[in-house]
Amino acid sequence: MLALLIAVGIVVAASARLHHLSEAAVTALASLIARHPGWGVLAFVGLAALSAMLAFISSVVIVPVAVHHWGPAITALLLWIGWLVGGVAAYTIGRYLGGPAVRRLVGTTRVKYFEEQITARAPFLVVFLFQLALQSEIPAYVMGMARYPLPRYLLALSAAELPIAVGAVILGSGFLNRQYWLMLGVGLTGIGVVSLAIRALHRRLSNAREGSFESSSSTSAEPPAKS
To answer: What is the reported pTM?
Structure first.
């Protein structure tokens, strides 16, 4: 999904006609936010929060509008806050409503694997890699179902989402200025980082499984104690 959005953005930025049409839409939406500043902030943060809870909603597409109106720094902050709010909300649903509610929202197959692999005793680095690698709603629901400590999850969520928010704002600014080579560079860097995080996560989960298996095997091989 990330690669597709970046590719579409580069195509639009590279086309003078398509970029002109998108500029008109950005200007119109920014003017609407200017007339209703409070509601504009709530709408943007709310959309960012929903995008952290539901896979079919993305806040990235309106980042150029936010950058046009608020500038890069405030946009990155609002986007980051929205993702944190959505992550905590998804965590809460997973923790207090449990598997049935999560499976209705996300689907059984998407959470089953990680639900079996990640527990409340997972190391912080694993949780950080989990959040960074998936960049979706799944980690928050899974960590909630696992009853992972909320303060530690919030720290992992904050650390993983901040660079992604900064990257999204750079992409949005590059789109507005038709800097498609910048968009391509940032996009490829982001995809590379996520790919490395995925590999590191699966390697650590695999090592954890092998360690558990070896531990259980050595325990079962011990002779029974004499009475």
So the answer is: 0.82
